[in-house]
Amino acid sequence: MLMSVDGKISTGDTDDMDVDKDFPKISGVREGLHQYYDIEKTTDYFSLNSGRVFAKIGFNEKKDKPERIAGVNFVVIDNAPHLNENGIRYIAQKGEKLILVTTNNNHPAFYLKNELSNIEIIEYQDKIDFTDLFQKLKQDFGAERVTIQTGGTLNAEFVRAGLVDYFSIVVAPAIIGGKDTASLVDGESLHSEEELFKIKALELEEARTLKNSYLHLKYKVLN
Predict the structure, then answer these.
(1) Which of the ends of the chain has fewer CB neighbours closer than 10 A, N or C?
(2) Which is nearest to 28 in space by CA: 215, 217, 214?
């Protein structure tokens, strides 16, 4: 994940703002940004993200032919839906397989499944069971490791369910601020001392100084 020093993964509190779109505009930040994308290319063969994130970075409007990433399967969680048919096509063409996870039985991916042979859909009735989802990814698709790059709310779901084993974080030399701006892990705040068990301790495995004041931190989660 890419975040600011104060843990923000967006530049503001609307979907029109995003670090991927906005960091290249900021002097002192844009110069070292490429290092994050170099690290991102070493992703696992299963890359999990949300439709909202893909929509934020403009996949619904893309007209170019995407550069195919050999061997990578995209797992996309999208209920609203945030993705339209163009966005789904773009992601499907970008990887080996698009595994769409949704509770929305009217999602446009259902209409494209017969047209695009590399689309798979995992459907849940009311709420996605993430433990069950990860079991399905392993049993049905052979996913031994999954790289998660979702927003703060979903990240909280995964972390508190004990489904995250490691954090790989690139820290950009920037302070963003804003109490309503998405952070690395958001979700419901803790309300009492009895909930402290939800806090996950981390063990530092590597801290590497990159160029242009960037850092790369790797932690093991002590579940």
Answers:
(1) C
(2) 214
What's the confidence (pLDDT) of residue 105? 96
The reported pLDDT for the residue numbered 137 is: 98
Q: What is the distance between the alpha carbons of residues 77 and 150, in angstroms, rounded to a whole number? A: 9
Residue recorded with tokens 């804003």: 178
Strands 202-209 and 97-102: unpaired
Span 12-45, pLDDT tens digits: 999 999 999 999 999 999 999 999 999 998 889 9
SS3 147: strand
Contact present, 156 and 11 (Cβ < 8 Å)? no
The C-alpha angle 34, 38, 44, rounded to 5 degrees, equals 145
- Which residue's structure tokens are 């849940």? 124
CATH architecture of the region 44-148: 3-Layer(aba) Sandwich (3.40)
- Domain ranges, ordered by start, for the chain: 1-43+164-223, 44-148
* Cβ within 8 Å of residue 43, ≥6 positions away: 72, 147
Task: Give me the helices (H) in 67-202, please.
Answer: 85-94, 109-112, 130-141, 152-160
- Which pTM does this prediction carry? 0.92
